[in-house]
Automatic annotation (TrEMBL):
MF term (GO), any: DNA binding
Keyword list, A-Z: Activator, DNA-binding, Glycerol metabolism, Transcription, Transcription regulation
GO biological process: glycerol metabolic process; negative regulation of DNA-templated transcription
SMART domains: HTH_ICLR
Role of this protein: May be an activator protein for the gylABX operon.
Region spans: Disordered: 1-24, 183-207
Domain (HTH iclR-type) ranges: 28-90, 313-375
Name of one Pfam family that matches: HTH_IclR
Organism: Streptomyces spiralis
Domain of life the protein comes from: Bacteria
Name of the protein in its database record: Glycerol operon regulatory protein
PANTHER family attached to this UniProt entry: HELIX-TURN-HELIX TRANSCRIPTIONAL REGULATOR, ICLR FAMILY, TRANSCRIPTIONAL REGULATOR
Length: 544
């Protein structure tokens, strides 16, 4: 019997989902439902209660609970509060979007050019790809200002309200134009695009005119189409092999700094020069880097099912991880290659890919018999997670550590002078006698375990990412205060922060700090680093 059509209601404040054909008979219904849960969580900013998810998806509460329990076991969400009152997306979920961006290769090949142009012009620069009748950002070089660009990697915008949109529309087929008109009629206020304010009014015919102009001029302008004051100019970056648009580069500003005409006359020439350099980079790209595939997936999911029973939806877990089989050296996969990369049976991989094709997350090429990821994969949690910080990443891990050892745990960074540390995250424990330090507090680096862990692992000196040397301070900052700390390292092995456990001397001897507290502290540092490395693969993760 065919799986039911995917017609779940939209959450309050968003448009109804676009009409979708009934799912193919071989589609995996739990996978369709799991994707719906992840999308609703994304639209809600990354957090919803189980009852909120029940309303947003139209699924039974028992189904929502099984899906969220599976996602939590995979590390894609965490359940917060008493009895799991909130379902929260975690940085590990970004591995799905990372798989798409890695397979696409454009961010890795072009981001340095975009960042350099942003520095030179002191304006925001973005890269976007087309996603059906919209655009989706794949890179942002944002300037920090009171009024600055707030779009995130993965955000979806309607093509007609952007500068890149008319450029992509120059390549639309008649069917794609028809779909665009149907979407405009179905959602006249753009409520289905939560990244932008509702539409005031635009003439549909104006977009066709702007598209014709973009085809003639080779560039496009956005003069406050999204919101008052926001202006942008865009130029297409073409694939040298096909001549088609690979992505669009844009310079985005505010009318307080540049008018739309000013963007065209003063910044467009420099943008065109950068795009020409980007196209040269695409003509002779470096060879793709090999990345490990999730080859032990079948073993892991089987063990998880054995451990959790019916609360673990094995078909959902297997299906989601199929997305991570793609990568820089695996941009397109046949069914056989997808099965080999994941360790799944060919039939299992086939059903997952059929489901994803139905949902618009993969594209099938009949000529080559291969599947590729689409930009829509970024709709699975990437936008809200792409603006995370190290302190947010660390906080739940510090909370777990404090609950395990019944002592306070903290995260700190060095100040620019390297003479002080500043606390950026903290998990306190309830005791009659406890360490009372708040986030934002600064202390002398040389007198703290956190400071010594940072000073002995200088930020500019890469270290062994898997090793965690420690620093122990006994009553040097304050009598009776003992603390043990380890460094936190980024993807390049550079120390960017330190985590510690602080205790009173009456509770743990120095030897006990090393034998009892150091192992869970090191495990916590490893988990923080794992999330940091995933989150920072294609995004910048600030300390706070």
């Amino acid at each position: 019997m065919p799986a039911p059509a995917h017609t779940t209601p939209a959450p309050q404040g968003t448009a109804a989902p676009e009409p979708q054909a009934a799912a193919p008979a071989e589609a995996v219904t739990p996978l369709i439902r799991g994707v719906a849960v992840l999308r609703r969580l994304t639209e809600a900013g990354g957090t919803l209660s189980p009852s909120g998810l029940e309303r947003a998806t139209g699924l039974a509460r028992s189904t929502v609970d099984r899906i969220t329990a599976t996602l939590a076991h995979m590390g894609y969400v965490r359940l917060e509060g008493r009895d799991g009152r909130d379902v929260v997306l975690t940085p590990r979920l970004m591995e799905l979007g990372n798989a798409y961006l890695s397979a696409l290769r454009l961010p890795a090949l072009l981001d340095a050019r975009a960042d350099a142009l942003a520095d030179e012009l002191d304006e925001s620069v973005s890269l976007a790809v087309g996603d059906r009748d919209g655009i989706r950002f794949i890179h942002q070089a944002t300037r920090r200002r009171a009024m600055s660009l707030s779009f995130r990697i993965g955000d979806l915008l309607p093509a007609e309200r952007t500068a890149p949109g008319p450029l992509f529309a120059t390549e639309w087929t008649r069917e794609e134009w028809r779909s665009w008109r149907e979407r405009r009629a179905r959602d006249p206020k753009d409520t289905g695009f939560p990244a932008i304010p509702p539409r005031r009014h635009t003439d549909p015919d104006d977009f066709a005119e702007r598209t014709a102009r973009a085809a003639r001029d080779g560039w496009s302008l956005d003069d406050q189409l999204i919101e008052p004051g926001l202006v942008a100019v865009s130029v297409p970056v073409r694939d040298p092999a096909t001549g088609r648009i690979a992505c669009v580069a844009s310079v985005v500003s505010h009318t307080s700094r540049h008018s739309a005409d000013d963007l065209r006359t003063t910044l467009l020439p420099r943008l065109r020069e950068t795009v020409a350099a980007m196209e040269r980079d695409l003509r002779e790209p470096p060879p793709p880097q090999a990345t490990p595939a999730p080859s032990d997936l079948a073993t892991w999911t089987a063990a998880s099912k054995q451990e959790l029973g019916r609360e673990f939806v094995e078909s959902l877990a297997r299906g989601l991880t199929v997305l991570t089989a793609f990568g820089e050296d695996r941009p397109a996969l046949t069914l056989t290659e997808a099965a080999k990369a994941t360790g799944l049976a060919r039939a299992t991989a086939r059903r997952a890919l059929i489901t994803y094709e139905h949902l618009g997350l993969v594209r099938h090429s009949p000529d080559t018999h291969t599947f590729t990821l689409t930009p829509r994969v970024l709709s699975l949690g990437f936008p809200p997670l792409s603006r995370t910080s190290l302190s947010r990443i660390a906080q739940p891990h510090l909370d777990d550590l404090a609950a395990e050892v019944h002592e306070s745990a903290s995260l700190a960074v060095l100040t620019p002078s390297a003479e002080e540390i500043q606390y950026t995250a903290r998990a306190a424990t309830t005791r009659i006698m406890s360490v009372d330090i708040t986030v934002g507090t600064r202390l002398p680096a040389h007198a703290t375990a956190l400071g010594r862990a940072l000073l002995t692992s200088p930020p500019d000196t890469p270290g062994e990412a898997s090793a965690h040397p420690y620093s122990l301070v006994d009553s040097e900052l304050e009598a009776g205060l003992r603390a043990i700390a380890v460094p936190i390292r980024d993807r390049a092995g550079r120390t960017v922060a330190a985590a510690d456990i602080a205790t009173h001397a009456a509770r743990h001897t120095p030897t006990e700090c090393v034998t009892l507290l150091l192992p869970p502290l090191r495990e916590t540092a490893t988990r923080i680093e794992a999330d940091l490395h995933t989150a920072s693969r294609f995004t910048r993760v600030p300390p706070t």
